[in-house]
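Protocol step 4 of 6: structure prediction from sequence.
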Amino acid sequence: MISDRVTGALVIRAALPAEAETIADLHFRARSTYYPDGVPQGDMDWAEAWRGSIARPDAHVLCAVAQGRIIGIASFRTDEGAPADTVRLFQFHVDPDRWRAGIGRALHAACVEEWQADGKRTATLDVHVDNLRAQAFYARLGWVPDPENPPEEGDHHLYLRYAVAGRADRAADGVADRTADTAGE
């Protein structure tokens, strides 16, 4: 499990059950930016869903916190039926008021660190087709279209894949740790 990760004034840590309402609010505000006709209404209780994700023993929910306020969230776990070395990034959101300040990049780096520690080799996610900003962000970080999940006609999501390099792989490739890079999300 990830220990608190400090990057400047930003702390990335595991979410607490008591933070589910705050996380659900950030999730809603971030989703509101990429639905052209507004976030679809539904009967989903997102705070309860986040409480469930936080409580799952096989899942991780990370929070990026600055000045005592949650400004980024990520949720991931191995999907049921997926290979044990594959992780799925279910949710990844940064407070829209804090975009382009390096928070997304730092939160992603913390996710990758956890995936490496957990022995994951591949990460997958789906991103809404109207969320061009997120698609560009993921592309900058090395996510590519998932050849095993091409979008079908009428799909509202694109499926992406990320090769999780192990620590030894990163050292061999000479890849620098980008957690301090604040030029990204």
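Step 5 (inspection) to follow. The two ends are 24 Å apart (CA to CA).
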